[in-house]
Write a structure and sequence with these properties.
Elements (H helix, E strand, L loop, with lengths): L4 E8 L4 E7 L23 E6 L7 E14 L2 E6 L11 E6 L2 E14 L2 E11 H10 L19
């Protein structure tokens, strides 16, 4: 079993988000995913695909629809989808088709449970707008294509 090292570049426990920089000299990855263009939001009943490593398995996809566009849980927005997710899918990716390609619209985070039994087709994802906000707050806007701030910009 190969062990990969990573550095935590930013995290937010309340929003259940983190950015890791992976050290992988064997399989470099230049491009991970395109994001839904800023200002756009997935719509109710849009087809979605969730990708994650559920139950420790290699990454696999499930599909479903957007069931609720903007639910609020503990003060943070979430998307409810019917694409099944289970333990291990958190931190994966939620995609829709836009302009002929799959684009990231969220990060799977929570599953509804009834009497401690997971209802896997009631899956909650952190919307891409929250991910963008998190990246910018942690000085990682360059990941989004933001221009780096020049020293002295906005400082008084």
């Amino acid at each position: 079993e190969r062990v990969k090292r990573s550095t935590i570049l930013g995290y937010d426990r309340q929003r259940d988000l983190a950015v890791l920089e992976l050290e992988d000299h064997e399989q470099g990855v230049e491009f991970v995913a395109a994001l839904l263009p800023e200002g756009l939001h997935p719509r109710l009943m849009d087809r979605v695909w969730a990708i994650g490593a559920g139950l420790g398995q290699p990454p696999f996809t499930t599909s479903g629809e957007i069931a609720h566009q903007r639910a609020v849980i503990q003060g943070y927005p979430y998307l409810l989808t019917t694409a099944p997710i289970i333990w291990g899918n958190s931190g994966g990716a939620l995609f829709v088709r836009h302009d002929g390609r799959h684009v990231l619209v969220g990060v799977p985070s929570k599953v509804t449970a009834v009497f401690r039994t997971p209802v896997t087709h009631m899956a909650w994802s952190i919307p891409v707008a929250t991910v963008r906000e998190f990246l910018r707050e942690n000085g990682l806007g360059f990941v989004l294509g933001d221009e780096p701030k020049k020293k002295g910009d906005g400082e008084r």
